[in-house]
Structures are given as structure tokens and as C-alpha cells.
Design a protein that fits this description.
The chain contains two helices and 13 strands. The protein is mainly beta and 185 residues long. 35% of the residues are buried. It has a six-stranded antiparallel sheet, with no helix packed on it. Strands 9-8-11-6-13 form a five-stranded antiparallel sheet, with no helix packed on it. It has a two-stranded antiparallel ribbon with strand order 3-4. The chain is globular, with a radius of gyration of 16 Å. It has one domain: Jelly Rolls (Sandwich), CATH 2.60.120. One of its GO terms (cellular component) is cytosol.
């Protein structure tokens, strides 16, 4: 496995070693010892799968309190995946990192606790998998507007298909500080 740091400290792209032949392929998608050695020492307690059509944008989602770290990947199709640092006091607060995750590149993206997460489907459809470090908590659920100009994410779509919740999400500057995680060096 290859662990690639992004511009956001802690957000890591993971490229597994893929073994393939005329029958198909095999790769190790998770190995606790290798992840721990790379600094990702977490226990996953919930796994989710979603399927979305081209142009669907989900996010930017987070939980506070009870933050979730997420290990995400694509089983079918292609998505543009994004993490945004929303930790109060962080030197990279409001900055984002994006990565293409596809069924063909087999990449995973680790988004630690304290970051908002979102993705946009760029193929006909995509089946998206994510493992979480904490259970979903509706009372802790939060979101940031996908096109917040202060964040400036360069999404590959200009008019995405959004849920009502995502379409009405606040700008990061309008979120009460007590609803955002705090940075701890």
C-alpha cells in the first residue's frame, strides 16, 4: 500500500497494490497494521454504501460532537471526493483537498475527524463505500454549503443534483463556533 499525503495534514490517499490477470483482480482494501504504521490508528464501527447518479453531489457533511473519521472508496463508477478542514483554530481552516476515486484506480481516501466531507458523481452512476469511526448521530449532524465561495472548491459540475438539506446548508462563516470541532495540535 502507498500512503499519499494531501495538502491537508491528516487527509491521506491510499493506493493499494492491485494484483490482476485475465480472471480479474485482487487487492487488500484495509490492513489494520499497515494503516496503523501510516498513522491511521482508528477503529471502524459503521460501514455504509450509497449509489448515486451522474451529477449528484452529497455534502459537505460532518458530525459535531461525536465526529466521524471516514475511509471512503468507490466500488463502481467515478467520484470527485473532497475534504474540508472545519476545525476552529486550525492553520488550514476552510481549506480543502480533492481526489478522484474510481473503481479503476482503487484509491481510498482517509478523512479524519474534524473535517467535512462531500463527493460528486462524474460517471453515469457510482457506488460509494465508507467506513466510519463513530456511529451516525442525527443530533450531531452538520453540513456546510457545497459551493461556499470562501472555501472555493473546484467541483467538476456547476449545477449538481442536491438533497434539500444540502441545498440549504449554511456557509462555513454562518455556522456557530460551538457547532464546529476544535483544532488540537
Amino acid at each position: 500500500m502507498k500512503f499519499i499525503e494531501t495538502s491537508l495534514p491528516g487527509c491521506v490517499v491510499i493506493e493499494p497494490q492491485v494484483f490482476g490477470d485475465s480472471r480479474g483482480f485482487f487487492y487488500e482494501s484495509y490492513n489494520e497494521a499497515k494503516y496503523r504504521e501510516a498513522g491511521i490508528d482508528r477503529r471502524f464501527v459503521q460501514a455504509n454504501v450509497s449509489r448515486s447518479a451522474r451529477g449528484v453531489l452529497r455534502g459537505l457533511h460532518y458530525q459535531w460532537p461525536h465526529p466521524q473519521g471516514k475511509l471512503v472508496s468507490v466500488l463502481e463508477g467515478e467520484v470527485y471526493d473532497v475534504a474540508v478542514d472545519i476545525r476552529r483554530g486550525s492553520p488550514t481552516f476552510g481549506q480543502w483537498a480533492g481526489v478522484m476515486l474510481t473503481a479503476d484506480n482503487h484509491r481510498h481516501f482517509w478523512i479524519p475527524e474534524g473535517f467535512a466531507h462531500g463527493f460528486c458523481v462524474v460517471s453515469e452512476f457510482a457506488t460509494f463505500s465508507y467506513q466510519c469511526t463513530d456511529l451516525y448521530d442525527a443530533k450531531a449532524d452538520g453540513s456546510i454549503r457545497w459551493n461556499d465561495p470562501a472555501i472555493g472548491i473546484d467541483w467538476p459540475v456547476s449545477a449538481p443534483l442536491l438533497s434539500d438539506k444540502d441545498g440549504k446548508a449554511p456557509l462555513l462563516a454562518d455556522v456557530s463556533p460551538d457547532r464546529l470541532p476544535e483544532y488540537r495540535a
